[in-house]
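Entry type: protein chain
Record version: 2
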Amino acid sequence: MITRRRRKRQRPGGYRGNEQGQSLVEASITLIFLLLLVIAIFEMAQVFSTYLVLVNSVRDGAIYAASHAKANQLPQDVEMLQRDPTYQPNTYCTNPNNPSLQHLNAYCERVKQGILIRGLDPQGAYLTILDPVFVPTTKNTAGFTILVGAEYRLTTLFTSSISLPLLGRMGLPSQYTVSYTMEVDPTAW
């Protein structure tokens, strides 16, 4: 007795019924990881953009500080500020309130305006402008260099509230502190 084997009919496109479901599962798992990668790239681009704004704004302030340090105007303002018994380091530029320190006020305003013009919010809760520090040196004719800088606390737009079940934020912080400091030779300006 010879029995004939029946051939299974293939569906159009050559797929069996369960292979289409498998492709859908693989695609959905891959899309999840691609979406997370895109979000991480977007977040890092935001941080880098903030860093560039901070660098350019601090450089604007550094140019002002260097050009006014030659005439000994800014160093006198900083020295007068440090003699004040209520002075706390790196808090003056948040709320410049002493009209007699006009060059220090102008320095703080220069950095704030640079940040505002370039699209960031210069509110006191986010921005800390470091007070200029005059470092003694023998490398130039002025006898000092100026150390200036700023810090900006960045909360990312929409990714700060994203949290995945079981994975959380996957190592990404919800708030970044971006800082930049530079040392300026006043004789170079």
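Comment: The chain has one domain: 19-188.
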